[in-house]
Batch of 3 targets.
Target 1
Amino acid sequence: MAFFKSKGVSIAGMATAVPKKKINVEDYIEFFGEDAVEKFKQKTGIYAMHRTNANQTSSDLGYAAGDYLLKELGINRYEIGVLVFVSQSPDYRKPATACVLQYRLGLDCSCASFDVSLGCSGFVYGNHIMRSFLASSNAKYGLLIVAETSSKQASEHDKTIAMMFGDAGSAILYENGTDEDSSTLLETDGSRFKSIIVPSGGFRDMNPEIATFIDADGNERSKFDAYMDGMGVFAFSITDVPKAMKEYLSMINAKGSDFDYIFHHQANHMIIKQIARRFKVSMDKVPLSLDRFGNTSGVTIPLTICDKFGNSDEETVHILASGFGIGLSLGVTSFEIKTSNILPIIETDITFDEGKI
């Protein structure tokens, strides 16, 4: 367990963008049959999701969310000194997608910009990275963008994950020089790195055969498609995550009842209910969005916050958040945010034609 603290930085706003194209789980009946689709819905709680078209990327969604947020809050873009892009579906192997976003968003060249390759725990990790960088800088604002197009790495013939993933991008604005303190717990179990993996396309195995095959689990996929050990990930989620949350609360001397809401990574409904039960909290305090947006990887926490509070009256809410999954990694953190600075989710079909080389 690694426990981190930061001082003087708070979340000043949050926005989320999803693609305009909506997919219903029932659309997969022709692939998997009605019984399999109904069983999937009951087990996961996922009924629909939004997905990008062929030319739309995670950075397009992140750009749309970031531009929307900065315009609505009236932020001077030259006062943003740090830009962090968290994603496992970048535009290129290189350069870093954050550099492209710095240009597209019109940020000053003095802005430090870099990528972080993390999935389901990405918001919690990114939240602490941003707070730490901003607190040690002279910049007034920092912008964290978490965006993912996991659907592009899922075989449409793989019934374990084809109906699971949605695409989305969130932008979170941070302000330096405030009186907020923050604490974060982060953990990694790399011995289980094969539990969720896209085997090829990186430099370990760059050019395998693209042909699909029937895997040992009976599903059709290629080496460029994601594989997930569902039972192993489920066991990790319902054992390691509640334990980490209890350790976190012990470190900050708090109880679950001290928080207005608890936002978990939207893996599936069964996992979230199991964590709530083991953590002994009512599901009334655990908002859900996966029924309409699916599993959007690291974006699920800010997406669910925007889904819950977008267009809300002004109040300050105290939030406990946990992200967990691919890596395998997890993180737990807490923060306060004014609901009036949380924007409603927007839909976009924007693409970056200049980015196609």
Target 2
Amino acid sequence: MLLRGGGEIRLIPRYLDLLIFLVEHRHEAVHRRDIFERVWTDVVVSDSALAQAVRTLRRTLGDDSREPIFIRTISRHGYQFVFRDVIEEADEGHQAQATRTQGDAARTQGDAARTQGDAVRTFMVREPPVAVREDEFEPLLQRLVMEPSDARAEEEQRECAERLHLLGTRQALARLGARPGHAYARAVLRDTRWDVAEAGAVPILGEPGAVDTAIALVRLRIRRVARLAARRAIAAAIGGAAAGAIAGGGGGLLLSLAPGSAAPVSIAAVLSLIGGACGAWGGAAVGLGISIAEAAARSRRALAVIATAAVAGGVAGLAAQWIVRAALASLVGVHVAVGGALEGALIGAGAGLGLAPATARAEFGLAAPRGRRRVMTVLLTTATCAMAALVLSLAGAVLVGGTIHAVAQASVGSEASLTPLGRILGEPDFGPLTRALIGMSEGAMFGIGIALGLTRRPSESRS
């Protein structure tokens, strides 16, 4: 707990974890990388999220970044808790510690409440400066309705929104009304309510300018994590490409070794390239869709992830269908069935369904589970994507393997026919069983690749 004068000061759990971490390591300057590793262990967030947390702690402690008493910014490195007069006391049961900070001008009164939990700590801090008066509503609201011109102005505006929440969310919304710029201001208030423990609800539906507010909110959240979302999409593309290349190469090698097959060993390299390209395309689209959903949604995140992954997969499938059909028709004069929007949407939904439990646990940021949770996420995503592919195959839909077989059947002298694989399974041709097993394999490999890519935590240092 964080106490002042015997009364509890509410902080969201992540911010309290950060304060405890800084106090525990107060004898050194803590690098941002170490803070992310320790405090945001299961999510990936932007540097602005850390700056937001530190700003909230400073306001709570009555600190000033220009003349810091408690938390000092170490340029191009991180932060340090610099208040020297810190007393650390163990309780009688050695179950928790009480940490008390004492001010230079006046010492805090009262004893720290003893805690019963293993991980609970109590803080006593000096009183902050004079509280904000109610007549400061209007200046803060006037700054909130104007869209910021740069990153610094945006952070200052978020500070205004947080102060309005502390003054009273309901009163701030009532005073905001429907004045010019109210939709953007409401979006900022909605976004910052997650960072202020005392904040009230900021509804959108049924309020003036609901659509404009929702659009502004999505833009605001995506802009703050745009770089992270792009990097995750690239990681998902790489994962999908690797998985597709392995699946295509393995299938090609199996095809070349099948009894009665005329396919040379070199077919493995060709199918590996095709599989890698398809995996990269689908992985990039679905990965970007999932990242956007995680950035834009803080409530009902699981549903948002599944829906956005399905939409992104459908768009990618439709684009791939058009490109492949046009290429085959114009280059070799072949017209065959090619999977499209439906196939992409269902596989994308499968990937979203597998990743949804991991991202639902994340309060904000992009999910990056570790250890056993990451393994479970990968296994679940593998299973859901495989099941989606199985449903499509049983319904007669054409996936990558089916498209390759159809092209081979329509082309004179092609060696890529998958009929020998069907004969291994006891079918005279590329039958339903063969189609189902190959489809499940494609879905499973795509699930493995995209899950590994999306849950990969950046290891490089942040600058």
Target 3
Amino acid sequence: MPFDVGDLRTPGRAGPEQLRRNRRAVALWLFGVAGMILVMIALGGATRLSGSGLSIMEWAPFRGALPPLTEAEWQRLYALYRQIPQYALINEGFGLAGFKHIFWLEYLHRLWGRLLGVVFLVPFLWLWWRGAIERRLRPRLLVIFGLGAAQGAVGWFMVASGFLPDATAVSPYRLVIHLALALLLYAAILWTGLEVLRPAPTPAGLGPLRRAVIGCLVLIALTILAGGFVAGLKAGLTYNTFPLMDGRLVPAGYAELHPFLRNLTENIPAVQFDHRLLGTLTAAVVLTTVAWGAGFARAPARGALLALGAAVAAQYALGVATLLAVVPVGLATAHQTMAVLVLTAALVALHMIGPGRRV
């Protein structure tokens, strides 16, 4: 039966068929928002890799929705950019044409973020007004919207770190915070959509396979965040061999910073080694879990597990290729995007393996 948004009714007064229609409408909206966040993360990666992220020196949530429309406005923005260290140390003399080249990607990234807010808020209010969103779901969605709004401020907090004296890029710490919040929003929206589309009763406990997939999810998240520090330090531009690093398993200078914990986030040899180690451990654990669970899981869960295994294998190969090619923009952007797809596959597998809490 085709879906008709005009048939949405209050869940408490709807029959089973109408409730199914309501749930489908809400789930499709949430999956659409999750897809836009995936594109946003990919755009963010391309923006960082191309050096475009510092090209817009103002945070103007409303006025900034329009691009420069006059030559005078272009010149004003270019003059602002010429004041920051990135211009003096990297792009000095590249002219207005060069500025426009890096400007448009950052503008698209910010515009997409604004569109994301509209695509979330407008259907949310309409579906709420129509009674399609169940009462217990509304507080969660309000929190998600608040976090999404905060992400804009976090993004500017990250960008502002690139305007500091002698800075030519943003702070790795702020970059990882920005990435972590984006992944949290993505996971929350995707998981909510899955719960709405495929509700299940509260489980009595967690089975061994479900616990194993949760462990895989933790490893995937840690590997992605470690990759954020690799990106922030541009650590992928060194040690471009695999599996050894400059002929060694553990690179020289791994623990040269003091105290030791600084090495985990500030030392290029340690940051790249840790990302490699986490990536290899994650791939091994995920593929072992997939091989074990696919032997007895039922058809939907088995398919989700196999998709997770394929995604992890592809991501590992893509990571090695990106490193060996010395981080070209296209491959590196694909690697960052694929990381989100791996997270997606793990969340779907977790949802399919056992019952989740009913929304």
